[in-house]
Amino acid sequence: MPFFLVLQSDDLRNLSLSGHVGFDSLPDQLVNKSTSQGFCFNILCVGETGIGKSTLMDTLFNTKFESEPATHNEPGVRLKARSYELQESNVRLKLTIVDTVGFGDQINKDDSYKPIVEYIDAQFEAYLQEELKIKRSLFNYHDTRIHACLYFIAPTGHSLKSLDLVTMKKLDSKVNIIPIIAKADTIAKNELHKFKSKIMSELVSNGVQIYQFPTDEETVAEINATMSVHLPFAVVGSTEEVKIGNKMAKARQYPWGVVQVENENHCDFVKLREMLIRVNMEDLREQTHTRHYELYRRCKLEEMGFKDTDPDSKPFSLQETYEAKRNEFLGELQKKEDEMRQMFVMRVKEKEAELKEAEKDLHEKFDHLKRTHQEEKKKVEDKKKELEEELNNFQKKKAAAQLLQSQAQQAGSQQTKKDKDKKNFF
Amino acid sequence: MSQASSLQSSGQSGLGKSTLVNTLFKSQVSRKSSGWNREEKIPKTVEIKAIGHVIEEGGVKMKLTVIDTPGFGDQINNENCWEPIEKYINEQYEKFLKEEVNIARKKRIPDTRVHCCLYFISPTGHSLRPLDLEFMKHLSKVVNIIPVIAKADTMTLEEKTEFKQRVRKELEVNGIEFYPQKEFDEDLEDKTENDKIRQESMPFAVVGSDKEYQVNGKRVLGRKTPWGIIEVENLTHCEFALLRDFVIRTHLQDLKEVTHNIHYETYRAKRLNDNGGLPP
C-alpha cells in the first residue's frame, strides 16, 4: 500500500535570488488590469434641503451634475441615485451620487433616517445575493454599495441637531461617515474652532463612530494624521469663477469680499478633496467591503439560522446546513399543504351537511304546504255543499211559497166571485 | 398707550436670534447675555423666556421685554410646537382683558402683550419650510409677524434677491399676512409706503453682530472673516439698518397700535362672545 508522508513546515524561509526573475512587475500588472476595468465609487450625501449638497459635488468633481434643486414640500425622505462616467488621464471612474431628497423638511422627522438605512441595506443585500448565487459573476458586478457618506452639518455655530445625532448613530455601523460643516463661509474663524470642538465632543459622547483616516500605512499615515485634526471639515462649494489677481478661481462673491473655495485659509475644501479622493478613496472602498458589508452579511446569515460552528464547536459545512434548512423548509411546506387539504375536506363536509339540512327543511315545508292546501280545499268543498243545500232549501221554500200564493189567489178570486154573486142577488 | 414694548424672536436654534436682538438695541438684552450660556442644552419642549429691561436714550425711557422661544423647531418631531407660543400670547391678552374689565382699574394697565414677533427664516436659498409656513399661518392671526432672513451673509446678492422673491410669493400663496398687514393701511400715504416695504424690502435679510472693528477709520459693528469684514450697518452688505429703522424708529408706535386696536380687540370680542357677552 502506498505510504504518503507529508512534510510540512510552518516556517517560511527567506531566499535570495541570483538573478532578475521579473515578478516585481506584479504591481504594474495589477494597475494595468484595474485601470482597464475601471473603478467605481458611490457617495451618499445626507443633509437638509438647501444646504449645498449638489453644489459641493459639482465643486469636488469639477463638473456640473445635472439636477434640479429640491422643493421643501416632500412628504418624506427619499433617495435619488444618479450614476456618471468620469474619465481622468486613462482612469475611468463610475461615480454614483445618492442624494437624500426632503431630509430635514418635515415637521415630524421621526422616520427620516429609515429610508436611508433601508437603501444602504438594500445595496448590501443585492451584493450578498450575488455572492450566494450558484452561477455568479462578482468580478463583473456593478457594486452599488455606499463607500462614503458625507453628512452635512448646518452651520449654526452651536452644536449638532438632535436629528443629526440620531441619524448618524443609525448609520455609523453601516457606512463610512464623514461629517462636514456646510456653508462654512457663514461662520467667523473664532467661532469655527469652538463649533468644531463642540461637534467632535458631542460625537464622542454619543458614541458615534465616524470614519477614521487610516494611519497604519506609512505612505499615508502622516498626512492622514495631520488632516484628522481639522475634522469636521468646514467647506464652501461654488461652481462660479471669480477673477482673483490674474487668475480665475472658484469663489463666491460678496459685497464685502470674495470667498475662495480652494484657499486653505478660507475653508477646508482642499482638505476634504485630498482626503476623500486623492488619498483615501481606495481605503474607503475597502472598509466598506471588509467591515460594513461583512457585518451586514454576518447578521443576515445568522438571522437566517446559519452558524459557523455547532453547539459542540465543530465547524458546520455550509452545504450540510443548506441541506438541513432545505429539508426543514420542504417539511414545513408539506405540513402546510396537509393542513390546507384537511381544512378543505372539512369545509366541504360542513357545506354538504348544511345543504342537506336545507333540503330537509324544504321538503318539510313543501309537505306542510301541501297539507294546508288540502285542508283548505276540503273546507271550500264543505262550504260549497252547504251552500248548495241552502240553495236547494231555498228553492223548495220558494216553490212552496209560490204554490201557497197561487192557491191563495184562487181562493181569493173565488171569494170575490162569491161576493159578487151575493151582491148581484140583492 | 404704555411706554412698554414687547418683542418676541422665534425660529430654530442657531439662526442668530439673540445676537440680532442684542444688535438691535445696542445692548446685551437677549437671554444669552442674562446668565444663559451656549453650553446649555437645547430644551426638549418649547419654552418661553421673557426678560425685562429698561433702556434710555435722549431722555426717553423705554421698558423693553424681550421674549425668546428656545426649543422651537429643534425637536425631531415638531408637531404643534407653535402651540405654547400661541398660548403665551393669548395669556397676555387675557391678563390685559381682566384688568380692563375691573371695576377699580389701575391708571395704567401694565402691558405685557407681544407687540412684534420676529420670525427667523433659515437661509437655505430655496424656499420656506413647512414648519415656517405652519408657524406663520397660526401666529399671524394673533400677533404682528415680521419675517426676517437670518444669517444673510451666507448668500450672494443674486441669491438673496431670488430667495426673497420666492419667500414673498410663498407667503402670498399661503395667505400669510405679515406686518404691515394690507388691510390695516389707514390712508393712501400709508399704503404706498407700506406697499413699497412689503414688495421690495421684506423680508429683511439681516446679519447681526455685537463686536466692533475698525473700518476706514471708523468703529463699526461687524463680522470679521478672512476675506473681508461684513459691516452690519452697511446697506450694501445687509438690511439690518432697514430692520432697525422699521421696528424702532418708524413703526414702533404703529406696532403697538395694531396690537392694541386689532389683535387685542379680536381676542376680546371672541372671549366675550364665547362667554355669552359677559366679561370673564
From TrEMBL, chain A:
Keywords: GTP-binding, Nucleotide-binding. Residues 416-426 have a biased composition (Basic and acidic residues). Residues 37-303 form the Septin-type G domain. It comes from the Eukaryota. GO terms for molecular function: GTP binding. Residues 400-415 have a biased composition (Low complexity). Coiled coil: none annotated. Residues 365-385, 398-426 are annotated as: Disordered. Pfam families: Septin (PF00735). The keyword 4Fe-4S does not apply. PANTHER family: SEPTIN. Belongs to the TRAFAC class TrmE-Era-EngA-EngB-Septin-like GTPase superfamily. Septin GTPase family. This is Septin. It comes from Strix occidentalis caurina (northern spotted owl). The lineage of its organism: Eukaryota, Metazoa, Chordata, Craniata, Vertebrata.
UniProtKB/TrEMBL annotation, chain B:
GO terms for cellular component: cytoplasm. Keywords: Cytoplasm, GTP-binding, Nucleotide-binding. It comes from the Eukaryota. GO terms for molecular function: GTP binding. Residues 1-274 form the Septin-type G domain. It is found in: Cytoplasm. PROSITE patterns: G_SEPTIN. PANTHER family: SEPTIN. This is Neuronal-specific septin-3. The lineage of its organism: Eukaryota, Metazoa, Chordata, Craniata, Vertebrata.
